[in-house]
Amino acid sequence: GGARTLALTVFFAAIGGTFQYGYNISIINAPTSYIQNFINDTYMERWGTGLDIPQVTLLWTFIVSAFSLGGLLGALLAGPMAVRFGRKVSLLLNNSFLLVGAVLVLTCKLAKSFEMIILARFLVGINSGVSMNIQPMYFGESAPKHLRGAVAFSSAVFTAFGIFFGQVVGLTELLGSEPLWPYLLASNALPALIQLVTLPWFPESPRYLLIDRGDKEACVQALGRLRGGKVPPLEMEEMLQEQQMSSALKSGSSAPAKTPWSLFKDPNLRLQLRTVMTASSAMMLCGNDSIYFYAYYIFLEAGIPPEKIQYITIGTGASEFTASLLSNVLIERVGRRYLLIGGYSLMVCWTIVFTVALTLQSQGVTGMPYLSMACVFAYILSFGLGPAGVTGILPAENFDQTARPAAYMVAGSLMWISLFLVGMLFPFIVNGLGNYCFLPFLVVCLVSAVVLGRTMPETKGKTLVEITAEFDRKNGRALQVEEPEEYQLGKASSLATM
């Protein structure tokens, strides 16, 4: 019963959470030309003259960039929302941004306003920024220790599934045609409605109820539902200990939440914060989203007819989805550290091969376009195998309850800023470096693998106290503990007893 409740909680939280992030990244690609025509036609009807191609491209860039800017705002809102409303209620409230955005895109043709599309994408970005931070937090706090990694990694699985599903729905035979593109962009309202109907029936994060709200009775009820009716004594003791570590005073009191600024000032959390910041920035700066963009031109050079490329592109989404499923199985066996560092190391290798293939392809060497295609799929597989999912788990495992929302705010902000920068700079990188355009991403992947290898301990199957002790050892500090006391249920145990 507990496993079923946990699985359904994960599904209904993710279907309106990180699934939406992947889905909304994907569905904007199919109607690109239709939306650009709509912009030009609307402008001509208003002012009696059309726009030049660079002007249309600039307005299209605003539509694309609005998603990243909205995501940045959502990441900043996620921390205060998670503390004030709780993890589950924040996810439910977050759907309001999507529903308003869906109404805007459905009525933009009637209103003859392309500005409504920009506003809609901004609201969708806010939704994604909130869900990308709060959902992994919710999962990490609700799952038992031995499943924490796999449950938290499911956020990446649903993101990859959203990308794949969006590519399928965006086919011209479905919603990717000229008359139906507003319905394609508004189709994200359906998962939002599913979550609004189903998620209220499932429990809130037990750790939030105990540590943030100070409600031990509600925590016991939520934990019992998630564990099949029985509250595991050791897990409850661990949460009570974390409550004690988080400066909660007595039963019924709540611990004050940290701010991002207080994280930067705390020397005891500096190494944890540096690790999370490196991983979060690298996830977007590594070029995985850019390789999706570049895939069209690679497939075109490989001799695939333009009208068939949309079907081949679905394979890129399927690759990341397959890799995320495989990594979900491996994460509790191999561990977070090896998946993350191994993923970036493989991406370094594929970037080198990819650059060589592009260079030889420009010289007319036979077979190089097919090698480039293979590198695209291998690069995406390597990303999905490690960085795509492990990155989102790190703030949940490396910070206590009071610092976790602020850590996700910092990580999420860096992710969205990095995504915005890559989206804006990549066309200039392609024009400036040509066949060597992926060398900057090689540097990012290489530096990330080295830095994370030096600073990040393995967190698989460890409590927060054990993870903190690992960081303390890396910082050269010895963790002081009290003398062992007799273990008693219902009382927070000391570190030595645990």
From TrEMBL:
The keyword Transmembrane helix is annotated on this UniProt entry: yes
Catalytic activity: D-fructose(out) = D-fructose(in)
Membrane-spanning ranges: 58-79, 91-112, 118-138, 150-169, 181-202, 275-297, 309-331, 338-358, 370-394, 406-427, 433-452
Subcellular location: Cell membrane, Sarcolemma; Cell membrane
Any Pfam family hit: Sugar_tr
Keywords in alphabetical order: Cell membrane, Membrane, Sugar transport, Transmembrane, Transmembrane helix, Transport
Annotated GO MF terms: D-glucose transmembrane transporter activity; fructose transmembrane transporter activity
Main location per the UniProt record: membrane
Domain Major facilitator superfamily (MFS) profile as annotated: residue spans: 10-460
One GO location term (cellular component): sarcolemma
Keyword Transmembrane helix: yes
Alphabetized Gene3D superfamilies for the sequence: MFS general substrate transporter like domains (1.20.1250.20)
One GO-annotated biological process of the protein: fructose import across plasma membrane
Membrane topology of this protein: Multi-pass membrane protein
Record InterPro entries: GLUT, MFS_dom, MFS_sugar_transport-like, MFS_trans_sf, Sugar/inositol_transpt, Sugar_transporter_CS
Family named by the database record: Belongs to the major facilitator superfamily. Sugar transporter (TC 2.A.1.1) family. Glucose transporter subfamily.
Record protein name field: Solute carrier family 2, facilitated glucose transporter member 5
Organism classification: Eukaryota, Metazoa, Chordata, Craniata, Vertebrata
